[in-house]
Amino acid sequence: MMEISFHGKTALVTGASQGIGRDIVKQLVKGGAKVVAVARKKELLDTLKEEVPSIEVIPCDLSDWQATQNALSHLSPDLLVNNAGLAILKPLTQVTESDIDQLFAINVKALIQVTKLVTEKLLQRKAPGSIVNISSQASMAGLLDHTVYCSTKGAVDAFTRAAALELGPHNIRVNCVNPTVIMTAMGKLGWSDPKVAKPMLEKIPLRRFGEVQEVVDAVLFLLSDKASMITGSCLPVDGGYLAV
Asked: pLDDT class for 187, splitting at 50, 70, 90?
């Protein structure tokens, strides 16, 4: 069994209040990390803090550049998980300017800003670091009614590669994880109807959707020293969807 330890490390997790982010926080704490959890909804962060009292919680709307700067610039974590994300799904002909602005503000702009803030501190300290961005199979495959969402996740993958190139000489690794449909509460809402699920499941060689823990395990591996030679990679957690 591969033991992963984060003792002595501080980790910042965005989108930490629910779904995949919430489980990442819990597993990082189990691994010995000191965790700072960031999310928009204070009430959900408060319930997470009740479950995991050792964490620090910071409510913040990451789409607000100045608010993010004010909330996070004092932090100096070793590890970062850019998990905050937004999905607005509709046909291209119905997409509005607001849809585009909202999706890019959270999925791309905020991710770049948070990475910049963390990277600045790592470089100041001359410290190694590990950053994992949560992307999607939608970055590499077109999905119906996902035009803008696919665009944002393609940007996440491209940013990951370019950041890895720039930061590699400083021993700061940058990777991303690209999940298929994952059975979070939101995933179950959207994909529990067999008529909706069937066409997607038929494209997944393993013939099932992913579980939250399967994404969390991939994230923890890439964050850890066990992945010390891996940077600039985009790791599908998709049951083979992208292999077909």
From this structure: confident
